[in-house]
Specification:
The complex is a heterodimer.
Chain A lengths: L7 E5 L3 H11 L4 E6 L2 H11 L3 E5 L6 H9 L7 E6 L4 H9 L4 E4 L4 H12 L4 E2 L1 H10 L20 H11 L4 H8 L3 H17 L3 H12 L1
Parallel strand pairs in A: 1-2, 1-3, 3-4, 4-5, 5-6
Helix pairs in contact in A: 2-3, 4-10, 6-7, 7-9, 8-9
Chain B lengths: L1 H8 L3 H14 L2 H12 L9 H7 L1 H23 L3 H23 L2 H15 L8 H25 L6 H62 L4 H21 L13 H16 L2 E7 L6 H21 L3 E8 L3 E8 L14 H13 L3 E6 L5 E8 L6
Parallel strand pairs in B: 1-2
Antiparallel strand pairs in B: 2-3, 3-5, 4-5
Helix pairs in contact in B: 1-2, 2-3, 4-6, 5-6, 5-9, 9-10, 9-13, 11-12, 12-13
The chains are: A alpha/beta, B alpha+beta.
Chain lengths: 218, 391
């Protein structure tokens, strides 16, 4: 998606202050086609207006961000979701990604970076914040494959290169800086990240679910 | 060495080297000449020789003179017991010992390192200096041999007349101890005070690092917030508390205390403290977790130093802190996207990086790598091996 083409953005967040903040910061660069502050209204409006990108709060009254994803994606798989939150319970973030969000960022992100992330998700790419990269490394830690019979070992493990890319993102590198550091193209970085996202969403990895449950119990 | 000789005589180095090898193979003369040249010719880049330094080394000469009574003692014992070979044998040993003392004291730094690292351990080979067991064993063997020697003396000459020379020897020994004893004690005292001075200097360096971490950092903060009296008071109070707990309770300032028991908790604490003290965002990502031990507290101290440095100097509004717990080691990265600097151009008095981070890590068995270039920010990489892991 080119920059001249204005992204049609939908905002789902229960904090009015945050919504007005985003409006002020992104209003000049995107078309805000709607807002919602709870799950049911969000599903109804998004299905009706079919925006390009939905900015989705992870913590939402009435079932959380996952509920919105489940209510929209079966009808409109073309809608891209970018999850965001302030507090970072890893299992919630991973759950939203597994439910279909194309990326995750924290609310401390600057206006410019937020706009960049929205564009990137709108173009079908994955957006990994350092925090998400850390969560994923954590979730896939332990090199996998031990004990539990894995159906698809390809899906249940990160490749060394993917691990490297995630590690750099977790250290605060931008995609461009990751590319320079590993002397690969920015496009390759993006394809690594997308493949990680795919693994995250499709993996039946025993440890991944176990990890999430363990976390919830803590 | 050959280079020096070549320079002194104007002959080609290679020729000199070949000459030495031939001489050494032919008669052994070469080795003698080589040793003499080593003593009498200055090392490359130095103006004095070992010989000239040795002649002017008054303490070294005093040490050598101090062994003369020992030589006299050996001679007296040998004479009394009619052991002529022992007497003639002690002379070369004495000369060699004196020479070795002067050479060791006056060798160049590099040569001294070689002597200390390679030769001295050879003398200690077979036993750890700190092992109590070897110490006790040595004493026991010494006592057994001494008693055995006395028994042989007495049994060998059944008459008590044999004890007379022994009595004479004891008198001479007593005389030597009375005459030279105080002097030996003063020599030993000198050596001890030298050692103490070194320990003191090390302690001073550690103290300087601590003071830099806490007091100087706080003073810099106070200067920056001079127009906000409440902030100044708050900073001064917390520094006062910290300094007191260091001076009177022995807890190093700026350390993560007992309030955190795991690495992730410690990093969270660090994040909150630095965010509130410096008004920047610290973005923390931790992968894995483990219990804190002394090494990891040192790692956290180094991480704090790196993060505070970034907060103060980089000009960036955000610092990224990433830690990963791996089976063999803990990796921690502190990164900012600020001004950066050319690592070579940092003056030696900017203690923060040089002393606090690198030395702290090295003292606990880890290491620190700092990457930075002007305009591209700075990244500090800290690596701490985990105890019990195979490195």
């Amino acid at each position: 998606m080119s920059k001249e083409e204005r992204v049609r953005l939908f905002l789902v967040d229960d904090h009015a202050v945050f919504r007005s903040g985003v409006r002020a910061e992104l209003g000049h660069a995107v078309d805000l086609v709607g807002e919602a502050d709870e799950v049911d209204a969000a599903i109804e409006l998004i299905n009706e207006r079919v925006p390009d990108v939905v900015l989705l709060d992870v913590h939402l009254p009435g079932g959380g961000g996952q509920a919105v994803l489940r209510g929209v994606l079966p009808h409109h798989p073309e809608v891209q979701f970018l999850a965001l939150s302030v507090s970072d319970a890893p299992e919630d973030v991973i759950a939203v990604i597994r439910a279909g969000a194309r990326g995750y960022i924290t609310k401390t992100i600057s206006g410019d970076e937020l706009l960049q992330a929205v564009h990137r998700v709108g173009a079908g790419d994955a957006v990994f914040s350092p925090r998400l990269a850390g969560f994923v490394l954590d979730a896939f830690a332990g090199s996998g494959g031990t004990g539990a019979a894995t159906i698809d070992p390809e899906l249940d493990q990160l490749s060394p290169r993917e691990r490297e890319v995630l590690r750099l993102i977790a250290r605060g590198y931008t995609y461009k800086e990751v590319a320079r550091d590993l002397t690969i193209s920015a496009k390759t970085v993006e394809s690594h990240v997308s493949s990680v996202l795919r693994k995250l969403q499709l993996s039946t990895r025993h440890e991944l679910t176990k990890w999430a449950t363990d976390r919830r119990l803590v | 060495m050959c280079g020096g000789l070549a320079q002194a005589t104007g002959i080609d180095v290679t020729l000199v080297r070949i000459g030495f090898v031939l001489l050494a193979l032919g008669s052994g003369m070469g080795i003698l000449v080589y040793a003499l040249a080593w003593l009498l010719l200055p090392l490359e880049g130095e103006s004095t020789t070992i010989f000239t330094r040795a002649v002017t080394d008054r303490r070294g000469i005093r040490l050598v003179i101090a062994i003369i009574p020992l030589l006299v003692l050996v001679q007296v014992i040998a004479g009394a017991l009619h052991l002529g070979y022992l007497g003639s044998f002690s002379w070369p040993v004495f000369l060699a010992a004196g020479g070795a003392i002067l050479i060791r004291r006056n060798a160049s730094t590099q040569e001294r390192l070689w002597i200390n690292d390679d030769l001295v351990p050879m003398l200690h080979a077979g036993g750890d200096r700190h092992s109590r067991l070897t110490f006790v064993l040595r004493i026991a063997i010494g006592v057994v041999i001494g008693v055995g020697g006395l028994l042989v003396l007495i049994l060998g000459h059944p008459s008590t007349a044999a004890l007379r020379p022994v009595g004479g020897v004891l008198l001479v020994v007593a005389a030597i101890v009375v005459v030279f004893g105080p002097w030996w004690i003063s020599l030993v005292r000198d050596l001890m005070s030298e050692r103490q001075a070194r320990a003191l200097a090390e302690e001073r360096a550690q103290m300087a690092a601590h003071v830099h971490d806490s007091v100087l950092q706080t003073l810099a903060l106070i200067q920056r917030s001079a127009d906000d009296p409440r902030q100044v008071v708050r900073l001064a109070r917390s520094q006062e508390r910290e300094l007191r707990s260091w001076l009177f309770e022995g807890r190093p300032p700026g350390t993560i205390g007992d309030e955190a028991t795991t690495l992730a908790e410690g990093i969270g604490l660090l994040q909150r403290q630095i965010e509130s003290d410096h008004g920047i965002t610290v973005q923390v990502v931790v992968v894995g977790d483990c219990d804190l031990d002394e090494r990891l507290r040192a790692l956290l101290d180094a991480a704090r130093e790196a993060t505070v440095n970034a907060a103060k100097w980089s000009g960036a509004p955000q610092v990224s802190l990433y830690a990963e717990v791996e089976p063999e080691a803990i990796m921690l990265f502190v990164r900012d996207r600020g001004h950066g600097f050319a690592p070579d151009s940092v003056p030696g008095d900017r203690q923060g990086i040089a002393r606090s981070i690198r030395d702290r890590m090295a003292r606990s068995g880890g290491r620190a790598t700092i990457r930075s270039s002007p305009g591209h920010g700075t990244e500090v990489e800290l690596l701490m091996p985990r105890p019990g892991s195979v490195t």
